[in-house]
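Q: Predict the bound structure with iron/sulfur cluster.
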Amino acid sequence: MADAVAFPAPAPGVPVGLIDRHPPPLTTELLARYSGPCPRYTSYPTADRFRELRASDPGTQPWDALRSVKTLSLYVHIPFCRSLCYFCACNKIITNQYGLASSYLDHVLREAEWYRERVARAPVVQLHLGGGTPTFLNDGDLRRLMVGLGDVFDLPGGDQVEYSIEADPRVLDRETLDTLRALGFNRLSLGIQDFNPGVQRAINRICSPEQVGTLTEEARKRGFRSVSYDLIYGLPGQDVPSLEKTLDTVLDLAPDRIALYHYAHLPERFRAQRLINSDLMPSPSQKIAMQLAASRRLTDAGYLFLGMDHFARPDDALARAAAEGRLARNFQGYTLMPADALVGLGASAISYSRDGYWQNHHSNKAYAAAIHERGEAIFRGWQLSDDDRLRQWLIMELMCHLRVARSDIEARTGQRLESAFAAELARLQPMVADGLLVLNDRDLYVTERGRWFLRNAAAAFDTYLHQTDQPSRYSRVL
Ligand code: SF4
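A: Predicted complex:
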């Protein structure tokens, strides 16, 4: 058994990433014990628990709470891409037929219309276009989308709101950057994954550092406040030296934020991944070495480690939010999420309010048919119980702030942590013994070494995970 290691609790408000940048190495025993499949907790309950739900169902529905929101977030899913990346697990459509995107946009705008009478006229404080490849839309349709959304929702101008877009550097040009900035976008997220040519060939996504560097520079010139890169470790053909070389290039380009995701190879679930040569896949121990090397390289370069997979420069809004205890997590990962509710538009999009979640049909065909028929495309969701809300809050505290205060538990439940969550603490006992968690008289917190197993700590509080036996649907922790 590995030695138990307890780190001192950081002062309140100090991101844990600042405390110990070089935690003790992980042992093979720890990996064997904790690296299995586990939810990523972008929501609680996780979306695979959602039940069939129709807008026509009688009774109160989670979207009824939209009538009293004070602030709103919007997400629009644009599923189209020009070519297939073999690692992809997103809901996407590979096509060169632009007409598909244009009629899809008609449906998204019709769906937005469905919300007109159902949402309070509350300012949108965060808008995100994701995909797929949102910049698959031409500039005219990007304008049409934003004008249509502005007709239904209150989209304030100015940079106090966060308008972000996921962009594929292979298909983004200066003109579209001009358009996006003119439409109010101020945050750009570029999908990089890896700069190594061999890895790029193995995943069918070729993109040069020069392309990314030029876009980063051009975005900054136009006043984008934050440029973020998505990187992935665990890809075919990757090893520690190649990843470190990619990171050197990334650090030269100095993005404001970096998301470093673990590649979950699930070819039995995702058809695209069957195109990956499994002989090129790194071993679990190589993946761990890559993750440790990457987090060390990024924190040594001055980035703060946030949550389980994000890094940000200390002056970036996400890092400031983490320092002030305002970091949040939603379906796009870590975010500043000050809104009361999220309306998700498009195929597979998920929405939520204080009362629960609701999700649209996944396939474009089913989505389009539903919008055509009834103006919305909801097919499943979840009405939150009081117990769900408590666990949702607790899981997000752990995932975002790596701690939960005893006083907060007592304020919410009227009980001590040990009484309110006896079974959960028993499940966490091995993590405490392994030095991944510390339970003291002030709070329960995750140590730097425990950060790798944040999902396991959160999972102890997931009622539904422990009621059924379906963990293998989730990706592995490491
Ligand atoms: S990774 Fe992005 S660009 Fe590539 S196929 Fe998936 S959604 Fe499309």
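A: The pocket of iron/sulfur cluster is lined by residues 81, 84-85, 88, 90, 92, 131-133, 168, 191 (CB under 6 Å).
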